[in-house]
Amino acid sequence: MRTRLSWSATLVVALWVFxxxxxxxxxxxxxxxxxxDNVLQARAEAVAQTVDVAGDGSVSVLDARDDQAxxxxxxxxxxxxxxxxxxxxxxxxxxxxxxxxxxxxAGTVDVTAGETLRLRSLPLVDDSRQVAAVVTSxxxxxxxxxxxxxxxxxxxVAFLLVVVVHLVLRANVSRALRPVQQMSAQxxxxxxxxxxxxxxxxxxxxxxxELAETLDQxxxxxxxxxxxxxxxxxxxxxxxRTPLARVQAEVDLxxxxxxxxxxxxxxxxxxxxSTRAMAAILDTMLSAxxxxxxxxxxRTRLADALEHLADLxxxxxxxxxxxxxxxxxxxxxxxxxxxxxxxxxxxNAARFARTGVAVRATREGGVVRIAVSDDGPGMSEPVAARAxxxxxxxDPADGHPGAGLGLSLTRRLVVAAxxxxxxxxxxxxxxxxxxxxxx
Length: 439
What we know:
Layout: H1 2-48, E1 51-53, E2 59-61, H2 68-71, E3 74-78, E4 83-85, H3 92-103, E5 107-112, E6 116-126, E7 129-139, H4 141-193, H5 206-256, H6 261-290, E8 300-301, H7 302-317, E9 321-325, E10 330-331, H8 335-352, E11 357-364, E12 367-374, H9 381-386, H10 406-416, E13 420-424, E14 431-436
Parallel strand pairs: 9-11
Antiparallel strand pairs: 1-2, 3-4, 3-7, 5-6, 6-7, 8-10, 11-12, 12-14, 13-14
């Protein structure tokens, strides 16, 4: 990518430099040509002041002092095409070119005679009739040398400019892509060795911030899938342990003591029931694992889980449970784990609430924060500190039949999912905050 970006940008710059160089040299050529024409025109007008045309059409030249400069490269042609005066050393070919040019009126022509000469004709008119013409010439070699020097200079400057631009672009592209490479390598190391690390919301350029957010989301999904697989393995092991132990016990009994026909039939039936139970467990769990869902396994749209929870606990407690959660918020925990973890919290809040329970969920940095609040009596510092201890009850005499194990189950499930939970002491109502990993 670095090579493609630098070369593509270099080619664009080279194209523009080429167009600018061509345009500049073309403009210079026109300016030099105009300058040569202006010099020839000025000389022709000066020579025309020395030309005298008689009434019979004869042409003569008035001699002037120090007019040798005017005679250089100058022809005076009469109305019949005769050469009245020609420059010293002129050839017959140049004379013929001058006569032909004069016959055509005003104009210019380039002639090659050892070097390139430009001839310019200035007709002398009397009563709309050309009675004579002055033709001047100049060598284009100085102008051509200037053009060649400008062309070679522009080529050299353009080449150096393109080289410098390419080197600068390559260096800048490399420097711009270096953080991307570093972030990719860091994400790869984290995915292999430390799945809880994230890039977070540290200040970065906008493009790198988007990349960091994308990589964090990928790491969240990977962590969610891993937690899902671990939980699946644990549940599978737990569900299979009981029927497998029953099968092993029956086999051990068969090996340890002789059995009559009825006992053997009972043992075989028990083994059959256990193996069928294991098959049913495997079928059920594998079917659940293969169930298609729009969300990656191990991830849950939090709004769906909270709405389901609010319907259950609100209906049971008789108080409304309101949920505020954006539907884009996803946690890296299975839906049933979310419901089982939050159900004791919402149930307790609904039991103590006077008018209702509020559940608010937001994405805050690297966690999804769920706050469950009620307008009940709240919790004191000692109660909030021990709220999640197994068997602890804030008020054993409140008539509640619970054993104080609900919130301890919540903490175990939340911690196992990679989150945290704590109660906030306040006399203005209960508040429990749960932080879960994003998905």
